[in-house]
Amino acid sequence: MGSRRSCAWIPSEQTRNLLIQVATKLNSPSHHTEEIRLTKPKIFLQQSALEDTLAKYVKEEDRVPLLSMKHVTLDDRGLRELIQAESYLAAIELTEKMLSVYSNSNKHTLHSVQLWFTRIALLVKANFLVLLKI
């Protein structure tokens, strides 16, 4: 439990209040009539940026062969498998692929918001904070 706690992202009070407001509106029966005005996040991440950052912090000989997207289903179950195997880079790539499904939509869903939270947590866990542009 201690390691999980040290990796937790603690949002600012303003962010926490906004997330509570969004979650409340998404769960309300009037969700379809009310429009939640949020910016639609997009992924502007190139594969090479992740690889460059990984190469910068981890020596080639220290890298262990890990699970990749080729070894799992391309859904929530596969994402859980990658996270459990600590294949964070592959999990980050899978969240990118999964979020691309929502790129044409103007509305957030509970699933898309959860994917964004998972992606941000993975970027933090993998020490890719430099790639987060908020």
Describe this structure in words.
There is one protein chain. The protein is mainly α and 134 residues long. The protein has a domain at 39-131. It is built from 6 helices and no strands. The chain has helices at 2-6, 13-27, 47-57, 76-84, 88-100, 110-125. Helix 4 packs antiparallel against helix 5 (88-100) and helix 5 (88-100) runs antiparallel to helix 6 (110-125). The two termini are 28 Å apart.
Which SSEs are present, and which pair or pack?
Elements: H1 2-6, H2 13-27, H3 47-57, H4 76-84, H5 88-100, H6 110-125
Count of DSSP strands: 0
**Content-based structural category:** mainly alpha
Chain-averaged pLDDT: 74
The major pleated sheet works out as: none
Overview in brief:
The protein is mostly helical and 134 residues long.
Pick out its properties:
single chain; 134 residues; mainly alpha; 6 helices
